[in-house]
Amino acid sequence: MAEAGENRVFGKRATQHVLILASGDRVRHMTIRPWMTGLVAGTIGLFALGYLGATAYLVLRDDLIGATMARQARIQHDYEDRISSLRAQLDRVTSRQLLDQQLVEQKVEKLLRQQTALFSRNGKLGSLLERAEGAGISAEPVSSQGKETAAEAIDRQAGLTTSSIPPARTALAYAPSGENMADRADRIFSKVTLSLKGIESEQLKTIEGLTTDAARKADSMAQIMRRTGVEVSDKRSEAQPLETPPLRTGEVKGGVGGPFIEPMKFDRFNASLDELDTALTRLESVRETALALPYGNPAPGQGITSRFGNRPDPFLGRLAFHGGIDFQAETGLAVKATGAGKVITAGWASGYGNLVEIDHGQGITTRYGHMSRILVREGQTISVGDTIGRAGATGRATGPHVHYEVRRNGEAVNPIHFLNAGLKLTTYMN
């Protein structure tokens, strides 16, 4: 590297540094200018600063990490102390709630037992209500709370809805601040108990009303039927006393004794159900008897042309006994069975023409004569209202009509008594 000569115009020239690079026969010159020197010096300085910064970071890093870990340890220690304090507080609250919850659970179990009893009663009562409805007895509408479960009753009394919150047993475990759970449970369960007692009272009232109606209806029907000479069973319910008789002291003569046994608890509800069942059974029996016996009309809506008893004979003109009732009818009119029974005659009979005779039991039979056509056969079982033939004028008749007889033990009785009784019974049969 060589230095350039002096500047002859302005005096001494600036010193320049020339870098000579030789490689074999080739020689290259590179002039090193001041800015290049400054750039190299700045670069070196930057590298030096970076090196010093990295060295300082490595030296201080351990101290920073240690300080950070110490701060985290202090925070964790404070957090654990807070958790321990809250846990101790929670244990105290939980212990108190467990004691209260035991009382709540006992009361819930008691209500669930009452609910189970209500369900069982509703099942028994439901079948009896269906029987009563079939017998034409309508019960007073029972409160809608009768279909309410104990859990639903609890929720209702607590002002809760089962669609928006957990069941009452869970809800009661979280009493609002300022109110003890046991106190809240006592308040709610007292209301629910009163509600369930009200439901039971309404059920008993309904059962007693049905029993009275069934007995009254059966008595009225039996009285109407007895007027026609029909024997009706008069078996009545042997009602149990609603209250056990008080124990009277000082009236017993002679010695008494025996092992001590707790007194039997009187179940008024089941006793009422038994009474209703007996009353309905008697009513059903009376209804079956009424349906079997001839209390219907063989030609509904048709007028009577000849009544029971002595009358002028239409062929001979002299007085003769008419053992039935004649109904006005055109040929082909449907002739109805007036009661359920079994066909014992279905064919031609002298004087009657085409005759059908039905046995209804208790020695009572009915005869339907002068029919143009018979639609039943002997031995066939008939229900009340069945069509057994068509009206006509066969046999000893002056024109088409329905000849109807009622016989008891083979002797003709006035059918009008059965027709009138049937009209009265219709109000009880529907």
Key phrases:
single chain; 430 residues; alpha+beta; Glucose Permease (Domain IIA); 8-stranded antiparallel sheet; 3-stranded antiparallel sheet; 6 helices; 18% strand; disordered N terminus
List the helices and strands and how they pair.
Blueprint: E1 17-23, E2 26-32, H1 34-134, H2 150-157, H3 168-171, H4 181-226, H5 268-292, E3 304-306, E4 309-312, E5 319-322, E6 325-328, E7 334-336, E8 341-349, E9 353-361, E10 364-371, E11 373-374, E12 381-382, E13 387-390, E14 401-408, E15 411-413, H6 415-429
Antiparallel strand pairs: 1-2, 3-6, 4-5, 6-14, 7-13, 8-9, 8-12, 9-10, 10-14, 11-13, 14-15
Helix pairs in contact: 1-4, 1-5, 2-4, 4-5, 4-6
Largest sheet: 8 strands, antiparallel
Per DSSP, the total helix count is 6
* Low-pLDDT sequence parts: 1-10, 141-151, 153-175, 237-252
- Computed CA radius of gyration, to the nearest angstrom: 55 Å
Extended strand count: 15
SSE succession: EEHHHHHEEEEEEEEEEEEEH
What is the mean predicted local confidence, pLDDT?
77
- Helical proportion? 40-55%
- In terms of quaternary structure, the protein is single chain
Structural class: alpha+beta
* Residue fraction in strands: 15-25%
Shape: elongated
Straight-line N-to-C gap = 140 Å
What this model shows, in words?
- The protein has 430 residues and is α+β, with helices and mostly antiparallel strands.
- Among the domains are: 137 residues, no CATH class; 126 residues, Glucose Permease (Domain IIA) (Distorted Sandwich), CATH 2.70.70.10.
- It is built from six helices and 15 strands.
- The strands form four sheets. Strands 3, 6, 8, 9, 10, 12, 14 and 15 form an eight-stranded antiparallel β-sheet that branches. Strands 7-13-11 form a three-stranded antiparallel β-sheet, with no helix packed on it. Strands 1-2 form a two-stranded antiparallel ribbon.
- Helix 1 packs parallel to helix 4, helix 2 crosses helix 4 and helix 4 runs parallel beside helix 5.
- The termini are far apart.
